[in-house]
Task: inverse folding
C-alpha cells in the first residue's frame, strides 16, 4: 500500500473502525529496522523470519521510497504474508529504509488493524512505528491526546505511542521531540521508528525488552534479537542502551541521548523462555544462561534418577545443564511434532489443550522402566506438564521428577508478555507440594530467585521480576512500582 504525504494531519492508514471493541491489547513482538544504500525490503523480511518465534499472528513491513510510504501487513506467519515464488519474494516494497514487525496477541485483538507496523501521516510527514512492549499509561495519554485533537482508530497502545511521538516531533523537532515522548511514555518499549527517510531506535529507560544494533553489508539495522542480524550474515554491534535514542543512517549511527532510569529492569523471561538461545542480550548468550540455570537447578534440587529428559524445545538447554551438573545422562524422551504451534502463545485454553496432545509423543525405549528428571523452562498454567507426567507414566516411567528453570509465576505481566489473567497461574496461592500433587509428579523443584538472577548474571535490582514477586519496576496502574523519580530530574 502506498500513500501521499498529508499536511498538518494525523490520520491512520488504513482508516477503519476499532475492531477490538476497546479490549486492552497485550502483545509480545519483534521489531526490525534497516537503512542502507540498496533496497532493504528483502532483508527486512528475512530478518523477520529469524524472529518468528516472537510473534506468529501477523507480520508487516513499511518502507519509504523518497516520496511515499509503502506498507504491507497481513495475518499469519511471515511466510504467509510475504510469499515466495521460485525462491524470490512475490512482491516487493521499494525504498532504502524500512521497518518490520511480527506480533502475537490474545483474545479479541486478532485483527489486521492491530498488526504492525503502524503508520500515520502527520505535519512532519510519515511516521511509522514497530513496537515491542506495552505502554502502561496508554489510556491516560490517549485521553490527553484526544483533548488536543488527536483521533484514534484502534485500541492499541502502539497507536498512542505513535501519535505521541508524531506530535512531539512536530512540536519540538528531532531529537527533543523523542525526549519529550520518552518522558511521557511509561512501561516497556523497544521500537524502530521511521520518520520519512530517517530511522531511529528507542528503548525504554529500564531496558525491559531487548533491542540491538548491527551492520549488514554497509547497511545498518535494529533488531529485537541478535539472531536476526546473524540471519543476514551481519555483524552485531551492541545493545541499544536503556533510555537511548539512536539514529541509524547509511553511514553508521548517532546516539542522540540516553534517558536512563536509576536502575535497569531487563525482563528475566527473555532469558528463561522468549529469546532464541543463539541470541545475545546485554552481552549474555541466552544458551549459556539457560545452561547455567540447569546447573543451578541440579545443585538446588538433586535427585537419584536414570535419565534427564527435556520438555522440547523450551526445556532442552536447561536439561543439558542439569545433566552436565548432575552426571545423569541426557536423552530425548519426547518427540515434538514440529508443525504444531507453541502452546503458550495460543489464544484459548481449549486450543492449547488440543495442541499439547498433538505436539509431543514419548519414545518408549528412553522412558520405560526409568526414573526420569523432566526439565522445563517455566511452569505457567501447568496443562502441558500435567499431561506429560501422565503420558510418561503410561509409557512405563517408574518415577517422574519435575525441575523448573524459573521460580513460581504468580503475578501478571504488564510489559508485553501474555500473562494478564493471574487466575491462570498454577502456582498462585499454592505451596510447591500442592503444585506437585496437581501435576502428578514424584517430586518438584523450582530454581530459586537468587539462583535465577545468578544464572542470568545480573543483580536482582537490574532485572524485572514482576511476575515472580508482584513488584514492578515501572508504572502499572494500581500496582506497586518503583516510581520513575529518577527520570523527573532529567
Ligand atoms: S513481569 Fe515477568 S514477563 Fe513481564 S517483563 Fe517483568 S519479568 Fe518479564
Result:
Amino acid at each position: 500500500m502506498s500513500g501521499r504525504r498529508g499536511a498538518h494531519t494525523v490520520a491512520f492508514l488504513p482508516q477503519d473502525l476499532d475492531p477490538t471493541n476497546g479490549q486492552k491489547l497485550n502483545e509480545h513482538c519483534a521489531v526490525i529496522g534497516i537503512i542502507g544504500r540498496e533496497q532493504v525490503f528483502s532483508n527486512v523480511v528475512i530478518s523477520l523470519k529469524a524472529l518468528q518465534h516472537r510473534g506468529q499472528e501477523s507480520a508487516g513491513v513499511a518502507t519509504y521510497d523518497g516520496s511515499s510510504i509503502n506498507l504491507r501487513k497481513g495475518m499469519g506467519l511471515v511466510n504467509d504474508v510475504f510469499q515466495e515464488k521460485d525462491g524470490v519474494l512475490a512482491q516487493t516494497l521499494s525504498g532504502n529504509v524500512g521497518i518490520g514487525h511480527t506480533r502475537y496477541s490474545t483474545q479479541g485483538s486478532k485483527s489486521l488493524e492491530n498488526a504492525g507496523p503502524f503508520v500515520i501521516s502527520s505535519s512532519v510527514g510519515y511516521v511509522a512505528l514497530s513496537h515491542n512492549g506495552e505502554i502502561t499509561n496508554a489510556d491516560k495519554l490517549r485521553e490527553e491526546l484526544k483533548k488536543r485533537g488527536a483521533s484514534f482508530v484502534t485500541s492499541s497502545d502502539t497507536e498512542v505511542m505513535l501519535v505521541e511521538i508524531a506530535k512531539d516531533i512536530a512540536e519540538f523537532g528531532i531529537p527533543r521531540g523523542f525526549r519529550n515522548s520518552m518522558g511521557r511514555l511509561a512501561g516497556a518499549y523497544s521500537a524502530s521508528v521511521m520518520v520519512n527517510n530517517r530511522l531511529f531506535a528507542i528503548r525504554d529507560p529500564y531496558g525491559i525488552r531487548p533491542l540491538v544494533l548491527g551492520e549488514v553489508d554497509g547497511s545498518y539495522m535494529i533488531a529485537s534479537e541478535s539472531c536476526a542480524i546473524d540471519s543476514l550474515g551481519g555483524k552485531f554491534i551492541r545493545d541499544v542502551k536503556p533510555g537511548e535514542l539512536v539514529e541509524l543512517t547509511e553511514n553508521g549511527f548517532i546516539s542522540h541521548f540516553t534517558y536512563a532510569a536509576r536502575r535497569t529492569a531487563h525482563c528475566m523471561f527473555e532469558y528463561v523462555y522468549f529469546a532464541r538461545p543463539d541470541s545475545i542480550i546485554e552481552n549474555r548468550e541466552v544458551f549459556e544462561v539457560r545452561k547455567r540455570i540447569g546447573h543451578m537447578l541440579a545443585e538446588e534440587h538433586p535427585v537419584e534418577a536414570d535419565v534427564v529428559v527435556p520438555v522440547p524445545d523450551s526445556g532442552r538447554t536447561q536439561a543439558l545443564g542439569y545433566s552436565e551438573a548432575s552426571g545423569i545422562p541426557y536423552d530425548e524422551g519426547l518427540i515434538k511434532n514440529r508443525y504444531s504451534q507453541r502452546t503458550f502463545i495460543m489464544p484459548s485454553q481449549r486450543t492449547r489443550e488440543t495442541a499439547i496432545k498433538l505436539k509431543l509423543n514419548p519414545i518408549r525405549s528412553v522412558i520405560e522402566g526409568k526414573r526420569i528428571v523432566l526439565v522445563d523452562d517455566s511452569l505457567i498454567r501447568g496443562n502441558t506438564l500435567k499431561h506429560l507426567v501422565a503420558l510418561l507414566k503410561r509409557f512405563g516411567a517408574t518415577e517422574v521428577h519435575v525441575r523448573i528453570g524459573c521460580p513460581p509465576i504468580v503475578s501478571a505481566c504488564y510489559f508485553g508478555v501474555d500473562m494478564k489473567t493471574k487466575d491462570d497461574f498454577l502456582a498462585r496461592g499454592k505451596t510447591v507440594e500442592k503444585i506437585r500433587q496437581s501435576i502428578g509428579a514424584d517430586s518438584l523443584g523450582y530454581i530459586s530467585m537468587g539462583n535465577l538472577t545468578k544464572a542470568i548474571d545480573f543483580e536482582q535490582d537490574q532485572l524485572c521480576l514482576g511476575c515472580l514477586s508482584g513488584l514492578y519496576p515501572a508504572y502499572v496502574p494500581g500496582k506497586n512500582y518503583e516510581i520513575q523519580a529518577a527520570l523527573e530530574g532529567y
